[in-house]
Structures are given as C-alpha cells and as structure tokens.
Design a protein that fits this description.
Blueprint: H1 5-11, H2 16-23, H3 27-35, H4 42-52, H5 56-59
Helix pairs in contact: 2-3
Length: 66
C-alpha cells in the first residue's frame, strides 16, 4: 500500500519537523508513517486526513477509478 502522506506534506511545502510539531510526535515517527514502516493508529490517520483536508481513502492510496 502506498500512503500519500509524503506527497501531501511536500505539496504544502511542509517539513517533517513542522508536521511532527503539529501532531506532537517525533520527526522520525512522521517519517515512519510516510514510509509505511510503522503502523498508524486510526485516530492518527483521521487527524492527518483532517489536517490535509482530504479523505482517509485518499491517504491510503485508494483510487475510486480502480
């Protein structure tokens, strides 16, 4: 599964550190979430969706055309 977190962050010109501060986590945690090397809790996924103004489906890489 390809998460779109990095794409969303970079499209807004945000650094890992800025996002980490916003969410109250370590910069490395955001990096792990983006690489999908660490499982993200549902609550955190919801927070990311709200922060980026998108849906959970989009973040998870689901394409409605498929």
């Amino acid at each position: 599964m390809k998460l779109r977190l990095r794409e969303l962050r970079e499209s807004r010109g945000l650094s890992l550190k800025q996002v980490a501060i916003k969410f109250g986590v370590l910069k490395s945690a955001v990096s792990h979430y983006e690489k999908h090397s660490r499982e993200m809790r549902y609550e955190m996924l919801c927070r990311f969706a709200k922060y980026y103004g998108t849906t959970i489906d989009y973040i998870l890489g689901y394409d409605p055309e498929e």
